[in-house]
Design brief:
Proton-dependent oligopeptide transporter, POT family; transport; Growth Hormone, Chain: A; transmembrane helix; cell membrane; two-stranded antiparallel sheet; peptide:proton symporter activity
């Protein structure tokens, strides 16, 4: 099924998934289990990195652990860009999702090995696998709908609910196993979740029709051989750089984190420059890409704050919240389930709202709402940090309230951003554009990881208030530029 297929196309027998194409159910469940593995591991990662050796942790400083966490998230999303290219030019989205799931599962199994080296080796595999899976499964969802259909946003919101169903369940399981029993047992649970995801995808492939079956712009003959040669040379160059750093005694966690942050920003600049100067895209497509650049900046700023839930806010939950309930101290990572359960509740409402509003509320205004709400969540977090000054433990309801505000912002921005990406994408860059959308998260997380270092040295109320107000101001700026961005979108709503 292509992006020009009828909006209400259904498989034989008329079976649907909440009124949407049946194929959405297969993609929904695959993404659910992939997110189970991702968020399950992520919920305990920083806690494991900062835990003492006596508690079987790595005893890394909080500032460094926050930066590692941010950079890891950034690399997961950065690799979505070459992952989209592989699908577009070599093997197609469907096989990219399959092989990505297999590599992700392998990475989690490596992390389950009780050895100090396993965490970084496992994360490297997860990064590579997620790069193949993440952008291409979203592209396949986009293939189920007409480009400018109001039902498209509703479909992505339902798909987004699947993401958060996995994200809700995962910390409850991996958090208990990791914090209460053994960290590597928690990582092993994430591995089993990804294995379920791969099996479900294989069994449900008959629902997919033609979605993602072939590369959008395949490389053939000499072009294919030339591309594979370049990939080999780039891989060799990366290995040589790592070897030089090791020989020079510079192969440290902080060096690698800083280098990867720079690479993320440079890749972003280079990729936008490449698309905007490509003579093969039309004037209308170029205008839409200029609009997309604005949305990209807004999204990166959003994720810079939002994704600190698993690092700065997770450490706050572990050290400064009262988690005793009837004599049981629940794991700090359990609070990572608050955000997704609220999204599960809110996603159907958001899907109904966008369908009801149709084209009356444009995408730039939705982004502005997301930024303002995200900023207000950190302003509230500043009050929570103020209450914790002096060593007092504060109620976990502070964090619940913070996450509730962030969820409202996320539902205004993230699923809408997924949909906008597939609508604004030049035909030549279909799957790669979905990788570019995830690159916004990569930039936000990479810079956010560096910013999060300040949480260890700045007074916490100052830290949260500063970046909260900055997001509010940027959101108000987005409102001012909304009309200009809509003009650049050239008829896409």
């Amino acid at each position: 099924m292509t992006s020009d297929a009828p909006v209400d196309a259904r498989p034989p027998g008329g079976k649907t998934f909440f009124g949407h194409p049946r194929a959405l159910s297969t993609l929904f469940l695959t993404e659910m289990w992939e997110r189970f593995s991702f968020y399950g591991m992520r919920a305990i990662l920083v806690l494991y990195l900062t835990a003492t050796v006596a508690d079987d942790g790595l005893a890394i400083r909080e500032s460094t652990a926050n930066a590692v966490y941010g950079t890891y998230n950034a690399m997961v999303y950065l690799m979505a860009l070459p992952g989209g290219w592989v699908a577009d030019r070599l093997i197609g989205a469907r096989r990219s999702v399959l092989w990505g799931g297999v590599v992700i599962a392998a990475g989690h199994y490596v992390m389950a090995i009780p050895a100090r080296w396993s965490v970084f080796a496992g994360m490297s595999l997860i990064v590579l696998g997620t790069g193949l899976l993440k952008p291409n499964i979203s592209t396949m969802v986009g293939d189920l709908y007409d480009r400018d259909s109001p039902r498209r946003d509703a479909g992505f919101s339902i798909f987004y609910m699947g993401i958060n169903l996995g994200a809700f369940i995962a910390p409850l399981i991996t958090g208990f196993l990791g914090e209460k029993i053994n960290w590597h047992l928690g990582f092993g649970a994430a591995a089993i979740g990804m294995t379920f995801g791969v099996l479900q995808y294989v069994l449900g492939r008959r629902n997919l029709g033609e979605a993602g079956a072939r590369p959008a712009d395949p490389l053939l003959g000499a072009d294919r051989r030339r591309a594979l040669t370049r990939i080999g040379l780039v891989t060799l160059a990366v290995l040589l750089v790592l070897a030089v750093l090791a020989l020079a005694g510079l192969f440290t966690v902080n060096t690698v984190v800083n280098l990867l942050t720079i690479v993320t920003v440079l890749v972003t600049v280079g990729y936008f420059a490449r698309i905007l100067t490509d003579r093969e895209i039309s004037g209308t497509e170029r205008s839409r890409m200029k609009a997309y650049l604005w949305l990209f900046v807004f999204a990166a700023a959003f994720w810079l704050i939002y994704d600190q839930a698993g690092s700065v806010l997770n450490i706050f939950a572990a050290d400064k919240t009262d988690r005793d309930v009837l004599g049981f101290t629940f794991p700090a990572s359990w609070l990572q389930s608050v955000n997704p359960i609220l999204i599960i509740i809110g996603a159907p409402l958001a899907a109904w709202l966008w369908l009801r509003l149709g084209h009356r509320v444009a995408t730039p205004m939705k982004f502005a709402v997301g930024l303002v709400l995200n900023g207000l969540s950190f302003v509230l977090m500043a009050a929570a940090a103020k209450a914790a000054v002096g060593g007092d433990l504060v109620s976990p309801w502070w964090l619940v309230a913070v996450y509730a505000i962030q969820v409202a912002g996320e539902l205004a921005l993230s699923p809408v951003g997924l949909s906008a990406t597939t609508k604004l994408a030049p035909v030549k860059y279909a799957s790669q554009m979905m990788g570019l959308w995830f690159l916004a998260t990569a930039v936000g997380d990479a810079i956010g990881g560096q910013v999060a270092r300040l949480a260890e040295t700045w007074p916490e109320p100052t830290y949260f208030l500063t970046f909260g107000l900055a997001s509010v101001v940027l959101g108000l700026g987005a409102v001012m530029f909304a009309r200009h961005i809509r003009q650049l979108m050239a008829g896409i709503h």
